[in-house]
Amino acid sequence: MASSRSIFGRSRNGPTESPTTEQYLKNNNKIAEITLLHKQVQEHPKYAETVEESVTKIRDRNLRQAKDRNEKLLKAEQSTSIFGARKAQSKNKAESTELTDELAVLEYELKSTRERLLSLDQSSSLRSFDFEHGRIEYDNSQSGIRGGYALILQATFFPKERTTASSVVAMKLMSQNTSGLEERLKRATKEARIWEQLQHSNVAEFFYTIPMPETLLDQIVVVSPWSDGCGTGNATASSFLLDPANIEATPMIIQGIIAGLEYMHDPTTKPAVFHGDLKGNNILIFGTREAPIPRITDFGLSKMEAPDSSAPSVVIGAAHWAAPELFGTGDSSTVISAQSDVWSLGATIFELVTGRPLFHDKQFIAVVCFYVLETRRHREQEVADYLMCLPDPVRQVVHRIFVEDIAVRPTATDVSIMWETLRTQVQIHDHSWRSLMTTVQAPHFLHNRVTNPDGGRVLSNGEWATWMTNQREQRG
User: Fold this and answer.
1) pTM for this prediction
2) What's the DSSP call for residue 59?
3) In 3D, which of 386, 406, 403 has the Cα closest to residue 471?
């Protein structure tokens, strides 16, 4: 006869062993992790001279007591009957929470000790910190890559579940110079909230946001994939395409950027996302040199199309790529939008094709003054003069993009169609991108990286600059 369960938690035929609880398993795993960490810390050659023996004994005792308490909690939960269950469960839960908190304190102490020992090791600049999903290691001596709001460092990520596996990642530290911790945390959280919704082959993958790891006090860390530019070391689209060996990848890379932006603007599967700072240096290159894959990154100025979205102006970012309306010209909105992103896309195409940004001969303040003080007619004429530096098929596409009236400015989808048509034409008529670039006439060919890679005769005393100065004088 099969045994049956009684309300007292025992079978009528005798006692049975209840299954282990989920909280017991969590505590047991955490105790095992902390025990291993305690052992590893003691193996450091400077441990004995840094940590008092009494502290080690206290930690040993605390670990033993934690294990005993966890076993007692398991037995208490298994023996709880329906009668008085609520009171007993409440007591067990309180004791379990207390144990979890004590384990967290012990783990923090051990990690702090480990970091202190690492900092004493003058022979190595390697630093590390643990967080929910694993461990990050990085070289504290590297200078990194500085942007407007952050410092980017190369790091190694060790997943929690597979400590022997690792991957190279980008560790983005939100700048401490521009705002306090609360503001930086808000900015990092906002960037992560937007970024983590994006899943596309031409948008860089988002990993984690980590507030205040112990080795980086008063810091915020955003973790994402690291790019080495297909092994070239030129991680961004700007630097990758400056290498003459990669010239034929130009149309493919631009098509990928357009596809990524088109996906971001599409509201059918997610809220539409507006980047706000699109430019060559915010495009990372993955894949291979033969088939590079561009991925849009750096969503620090981005916003989602939602009622509560913040509305930053991209002018605080990169003025050379910014749309006219963001400078307060005309009646248009001064906040980032799909239309302003498309203008920045046009400026990015100009940059990647010629190797130099639009208005490259103007400083930041000169670009601002140009948009604020010049008439619309003069602005359009000046932009048209810059576009003479592009091969005719490319110039036609970018000219369609550089329309100040946002109501008639094309969408990213429109640009995608135009660019795909251009690529087909180039394959039929010019056969190579390099051949297409050689069709640019003097003095405009001096502006592009293929026919004038070292930039000679472009600066203030050059032929192209002289021609541009004459054009401006004629406009008055």
Assistant:
1) 0.69
2) H
3) 386
Write out the DSSP string of 105-147. HHHHHHHHHHHHHHHH-TT--EEEEEETTEEEEEETT---EE-
Tokens of 351: 């940059």
In angstroms, the CA 325 to CA 379 distance is 12
Identify the sign of the CA torsion 381, 361, 473, 447: negative
- Residue 375 has φ and ψ, to the nearest 5°, of -75, 160
Q: Is 168 helix (H, G, I), strand (E, B) or coil?
A: strand
Place of tokens 């992103």: 341
**Nearest CA-CA partner of 344 in 374, 324, 368:** 324
The pLDDT tens digits for 174-204 are: 655 555 556 666 666 776 777 778 889 999 8
The per-residue pLDDT for range 209-219, each reduced to its tens digit, is 676 555 555 56
Query: Which residues have a Cβ under 8 Å from the Cβ of 306 and sit 6 or more positions away?
Result: 271
The CB density around residue 473, as the number of other CB atoms within 10 Å, is 8
Phi, psi of 356, rounded to the nearest 5 degrees: -140, 145
